[in-house]
Amino acid sequence: MIKTLHLTFILLSILSFVGRVILSETHPVILKQKLFRIAPHIIDTILLLSGITLIYQGNWLSTDYSWIIAKIVALLGYIGLGVVVMRNRGAVRWLAFIGAMACFVYIGIVAVTKNALFFL
């Protein structure tokens, strides 16, 4: 059940991020509403808590957990780039958006393969 919750909130998180980027370009006034300021934080908090729960349920810290560290580092990159996306305009925004999406894809691949260096 926790895995389903985690996967659901992964989907909600990425849809929320992409949706906010689109709204910031098309209808930036909407993003000032309370729901659009609070909901992403709630979604991401539940996502993070379900991920931590999965780590402990899967007993993944008792084995090689370098892939978990890689996911955390990529998550920090995703968050940082997401902040850049939401606070900038023009080319900087879109380069940061591409970087954030690359981090997201990397996190997903590492989660499935349990290999931080899957590309080697």
What is the element layout, followed by pairings?
Layout: H1 2-26, H2 34-57, H3 66-87, H4 90-113
In brief:
By secondary structure, the chain is an all-alpha fold. 79% of the residues lie in helices and 0% in strands. The chain folds into 2 domains: 1-62; 64-120.
Write up this protein.
With 120 residues, this protein is mainly alpha-helical. The chain has 2 domains: 1-62; 64-120. The protein contains 4 helices and no strands. It has helices at residues 2-26, 34-57, 66-87, 90-113.
Q: How confident overall, as mean pLDDT? A: 92
SSE string, helix = H, strand = E? Answer: HHHH
What characteristic shape results from the CA principal axes? globular
Tell me how many strands there are.
Answer: 0
CA radius of gyration? 15 Å
Main sheet summary: none
Q: Provide the structure class.
A: mainly alpha
Q: Residue share in helices?
A: over 70%
Structurally, the number of domains stands at: 2
Oligomer type: single chain
Distance between the termini: 33 Å
Helical run tally: 4
Note the beta-strand portion.
Answer: under 5%
> Which residues form runs of ≥5 with pLDDT under 50?
none
Features:
2 domains, 120 residues, 79% helix, globular, 4 helices
